[in-house]
């Protein structure tokens, strides 16, 4: 999407990720951030005493005690918030000068996504990237790799993390 003078009626970019790369969805949020923010707000309204608020709540969890429920609820919200923060961080990275270390970390994240046996295969490559590619080339490599990362579907809530005691 082209950067337009006015991205939405009230904001010039997404209020979460600060980007104009994606279309505006609603309430100043882009199509990627809006559903996550909506989910957070929905979960914040969960109330064990009011079953109508428990939209998208796993029915198997109805047996939780109130204090356990609050912990589970806060951990789920925290994971969705981390997802929003991750989107915002990724957008911020697209605006800065990319260094070799940024490429090294990005390669290492993609290696993890691919489930490669040697997860350290790009460890220590930052200097190589700095010496081999100029600033513009590093930026283009970063953008291309960012497209790969963005195309990987989010795994969703990590229930093991939610229920660790």
Task: Give an account of the 3D structure.
The protein has six helices and two strands; from the N terminus they run ββαααααα. 50% of the residues lie in helices and 3% in strands. It is mostly helical. It starts with 23 loop residues before the first strand and ends with a helix.
Map the helices and strands:
Elements: E1 24-26, E2 29-30, H1 33-44, H2 66-93, H3 100-113, H4 126-132, H5 135-151, H6 159-162
Helix pairs in contact: 1-2, 3-4, 3-5
Arithmetic mean pLDDT: 90
Structural class of the secondary elements? Answer: mainly alpha
In helices, the fraction of residues equals 40-55%
Low-pLDDT segments: none
Shape: flat
Give the terminus-to-terminus CA distance: 45 Å
Spell out the key features of this protein.
165 residues; single chain; mainly alpha; two-stranded antiparallel sheet; flat
Describe what is shown at a glance.
This protein is mostly helical. It has helices spanning 33-44, 66-93, 100-113, 126-132, 135-151, 159-162, and strands at 24-26, 29-30.
């Amino acid at each position: 999407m082209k950067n337009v003078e006015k991205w939405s009626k009230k904001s010039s970019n997404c209020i979460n990720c600060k980007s104009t790369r994606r279309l505006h969805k609603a309430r100043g949020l882009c199509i990627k951030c809006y559903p996550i923010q909506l989910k957070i707000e929905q979960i914040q309204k969960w109330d064990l005493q009011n079953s109508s608020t428990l939209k998208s709540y796993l029915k198997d969890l109805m047996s939780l005690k109130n204090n356990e429920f609050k912990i589970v609820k806060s951990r789920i919200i925290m994971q969705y918030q981390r997802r929003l923060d991750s989107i915002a961080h990724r957008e911020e990275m697209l605006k800065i000068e990319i260094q070799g270390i940024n490429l090294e970390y990005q390669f290492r994240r993609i290696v993890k996504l691919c489930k490669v046996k040697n997860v350290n295969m790009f460890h220590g490559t930052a200097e190589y990237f700095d010496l081999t590619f100029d600033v513009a080339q590093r930026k283009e490599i970063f953008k291309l790799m960012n497209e790969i990362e963005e195309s990987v579907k989010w795994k969703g809530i990590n229930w093991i993390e939610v229920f660790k005691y």
